[in-house]
Amino acid sequence: MENPGSSIISALGAGSGVNFVQLAGDIADATYAAQRINISNRNETLEARISAASNLRNILTELSSALGDRIRNGDVSRQGSVDDPGVASVSVPAGTTPTGTYSLEVSQLAQSQTLVSQSFAAPDDLVGEGSLTIRFGTVAGASFTEDVDQPQLDITVEATDTLETLAAKITAQSDDALDAYVVQGTNGAQLVVKGREGDVNGFTLEGVSAGGGPAGAPGDLTYLSWQPSTDAGELRQTAQDAVFELDTVEIRSASNTVTGLPEGMTLQLEATNIGTPTTISFDTDNSAISDVVTDLVAALNDVARVVSEDAAAQGGTLGSDPGARALRADLRNLTREIVMPNADPDEPSTLADLGIRVTADGTFELDAERLNQTLSENPEATAAMFTTGVFGVFATIDSFARENTTTTDPGSLGGSVERYEGLIERNEDRLERIAEQQETLRQRLVRDLVAAETRITSSQATLSFLQQQFDQSDNN
After folding, report:
1. Is the pTM of this model over 0.85?
2. Is residue 179's pLDDT more than 90?
3. φ, ψ for residue 110, nearest 5 deg
4. What's residue 212's pLDDT?
């Protein structure tokens, strides 16, 4: 495309051949080049600092998160055990520190009602049109007491429903209260219906036929009716609660998975042990705690190494950064932080009590002998340090990470990132203003240079005319 400035000059009769538009642009660019380069260099430095500070923030956040996951997973909690594992198993919420021992005697396991219907020829036999009502409650011998807190289930049975489609309807419409399926056995096809554990989860079946077949025969819905008073062998298992004694106190549970017990423990009952109580106890897994402490030391050393490199006085990206300096100071003081403020004088309360110490060069190391002594002398108090509560190793590391990454504290790494980002934003605004000033200068220079070229061209034309006049006068 033809340069518009050159076209204007040519139209005015200028013939210097100089591209004044480009010249004006070059002059304007050179005028502000130093300022632009200076600001760009500052931004590069700021971006490097943001990257280094953000990396340290991520490392601290990941350290806290990983430690929290490790503790929540429960491998450092006191572990429960049952002397006779065939009777029951025990678990406790992650991060808790149960200390008691308990006797356990199971006299009855919870079970669900199982009902097997009279036989049909095949699973796809029609069951008869009508409605099937299922009521829930307690079956005791030949009697049934309905549980009014459980709504009855009313199932509409179509003329096209088979034994298999009815089983599917019972399961789908019972909201997990029942599980129904069809088994083809030696006596033919039979509907099996299972309820939930617990004595109030027994059930009855009441079929109301819409007609079409002999009452009480296959093909008529009344054939599937069942009441305990008329049981003819369909009841294969009665619903009942689990019954057990915990430290001789009798407890009933509708499920073999029992919650709400002392110290938050959950029991999974597996078998009865009438007359031979077993013992539940809890022990600290010292090897798991040692593993966590060892890994924590390694993780802290990773942090210390990055801080040492980035916050070095000579050549460090964050050498003059207040957040990096604060982090370095906090690392050196970390092992002296009180982890357990409520600990007794003879109980561990700091990371140093766990054998973690800082060397003269700012790295961390593990004193295994100190850790083993703490575990041996105070196993319960040591285990209590590894919870997700308001106190403990995790709370201390989490607080350490948060304080050094928050954006509300100008003296933290988070505050540094906020400050550097603000400086970059202001520099970008300055670059925009420089660009506007440069464009204004360029446009003014174009106008001035075009005007000057026009004046010079006019003067040259006048001089040429006068010269011609003089030359003619001399010839005459």
Report:
1. no
2. yes
3. -70, 145
4. 65
Whose CA is closest to 133, among 119, 151, 153?
Answer: 153
Rounded to 5°, the CA angle 292-367-301 comes to: 60
Distance CA 114, CA 202 (A): 9
CA distance 299 to 280: 36
Rounded-to-integer distance, Cα 243 and Cα 199, Å? 11
On the 0-12 / 13-18 / 19+ scale of CB atoms within 10 A, 256 is: buried
Q: Which residues contact 473 (CB under 8 A, 6 or more apart)?
A: none
Exposed, middle or buried by CB within 10 Å (0-12, 13-18, 19+), for 370?
middle
Chain segment 76-125, per-residue pLDDT in tens: 767 789 999 999 999 887 656 677 899 999 999 999 999 999 999 999 99
Tokens standing for 84? 């006779």
CA dihedral for 251, 253, 256, 258, sign (positive or negative)? negative
DSSP letter for each residue of 322-377 = HHHHHHHHHHHHGGGSBS-TT--TTS--BTGGGTEEE-TTS-EEE-HHHHHHHHHH
Kindly give, in sequence order, each residue whose CB lies less than 8 Å from that of residue 231, ignoring residues fewer than 6 positions away.
142
Angle between helices 393-405 and 413-475 (to 10 degrees): 20
Q: What is the DSSP string of 268-310?
A: EE----TT--EEEEEE--HHHHHHHHHHHHHHHHHHHHHHHHH
First to last CA, the chain: 51
Per-residue DSSP letters for 416-432? HHHHHHHHHHHHHHHHH
* The two structure tokens encoding residue 153: 């289930």
Distance of CA 234 to the CA centre of its chain: 49
- Strand duo 179-185 + 79-82: pairing: unpaired
Least confident of 9-23, 319-333, 388-402: 9-23
